[in-house]
């Protein structure tokens, strides 16, 4: 469940930067948002692999 907390934390951070990018046209926030999305993708893939391994056991 620790990874779930990490995912929630990333999504919370992402929400702030997405708001700044879309409403205030802050380009730096867009860069941070893209990085956070990449981190989220990586973490989600790790969780998917972990779940698949546990299903096999």
UniProtKB/TrEMBL annotation:
Question: Which organism is this protein's natural source?
Answer: Natronogracilivirga saccharolytica
State the superkingdom: Bacteria
One Pfam family this sequence matches: Hc1
Q: To which protein family does this belong?
A: Belongs to the histone H1/H5 family. HCT subfamily.
What does the UniProt function comment say about this protein?
Might have a role analogous to that of eukaryotic histone proteins.
In Swiss-Prot or TrEMBL terms, this protein is called Histone H1
InterPro entries per record: Hc1 (IPR010886)
Task: Kindly list the GO molecular function terms attached to this UniProt entry.
Answer: DNA binding; structural constituent of chromatin
